[in-house]
Amino acid sequence: MELTNDLLGRVLTGGQNVGDFNLGLVGGLAATLLAVELLGWAGWTTYRYGGETAYLRITKRGGTRPLALPVNYAITGYVYHGTAVTANGQAQRVTLKTNADDPGPFKPGQLVRVTVNRHYGVTHYQAVAPDQVPLTARNHR
């Protein structure tokens, strides 16, 4: 039994004696698992929340929807449909659904910077001033 424990200790510590306090194989394995976890988290975050920045001019409200807050309190969120334009002038149809962090409403003519994810649609939005919008997006009709 003593031989088995010594052999197991040497395998787990990279060939060093158990009493030498060397990280060895266990430390390398832990570092590898941490690196894989961080890369996976970064990849998922980019896949889920990343996307192309575009600018949407609010023309009219498309409707409302109920939003629930954690304190069991309902507020009204808004839905907007329109054409968002990127900084290089590419236009695409988007649907912006406001969330509880900024439920809106937006005023007609207001410019909103949106992040458009090809898998999940609009993942982030923020009202911006006209001088924060590139000319190609600002002048697009």
Question: How would you explain this protein's 3D organization?
Answer:
The relative contact order is 0.15. Strands 1, 2, 3, 4, 5 and 6 form a six-stranded antiparallel sheet that branches. The chain contains three helices and six strands, in the order H-H-E-E-E-E-E-E-H. It is an alpha+beta fold and 141 residues long. The protein starts with a helix and ends with a helix.
Question: How many distinct beta strands?
Answer: 6
Q: What percentage of amino acids are in beta strands?
A: 25-35%
- The average pLDDT score comes to 82
Order of helices and strands: HHEEEEEEH
Q: Roughly how much helix do the residues carry, as a percent range?
A: 25-40%
Largest sheet: 6 strands, antiparallel
Contiguous uncertain segments of 5+ residues: none
What class, by secondary structure content?
alpha+beta
Distance between the termini: 81 Å
How many helix segments? 3
Q: Given the C-alpha coordinates, what overall shape results?
A: flat
Q: Which radius of gyration do the C-alpha atoms yield?
A: 26 Å
Quick take:
The protein has 141 residues and is of the alpha+beta class.
Topology:
Layout: H1 2-12, H2 24-49, E1 52-57, E2 63-69, E3 73-86, E4 91-97, E5 111-117, E6 121-128, H3 135-138
Antiparallel strand pairs: 1-3, 1-5, 2-3, 3-4, 5-6
Question: What would the keywords be for this entry?
Answer:
6-stranded antiparallel beta sheet, 6 strands, alpha+beta, 141 residues, single chain, 3 helices
